[in-house]
């Protein structure tokens, strides 16, 4: 079974970057890429057809389990399950969304994000500054086009001025 739609490189629109932590000196933040839940739904629709897959959410202690069931072209049914905790912002919606995204990774969607470099952004803020977003997009495009990127990338405000 060729899951080329699910495993195709993620576009900048399908990725959201989140702050994972701040460095001990407070001068940089570490950001990590995630797939969006809209990406999951669209890619599954494109791969299996609108009626060719479904998801089921079960509430468990502290979070949610998502099972995605897909019907392959030959009629074989495949089910995969993964879970996530309630989130700090919109605990139910966020937890369900995260469980679904984690489950989609079981099918190969977004698995390539684990190969992305460690990304640090030079800022004392606790959020991603506006100047950094175009640089993150440019890095994703470079990775998707087969370009090489260092294992650790540090984005600085002066990089945005020269971009």
TrEMBL record:
Record InterPro entries: Rad52_fam (IPR041247)
The organism's place on the tree of life at top rank: Bacteria
Keywords, in A-Z order: DNA damage, DNA repair
One Pfam family cited in the UniProt record for this chain: Rad52_Rad22
GO BP terms, alphabetized: DNA repair
Protein family (similarity comment): Belongs to the RAD52 family.
Name of the protein: DNA repair protein Rad52
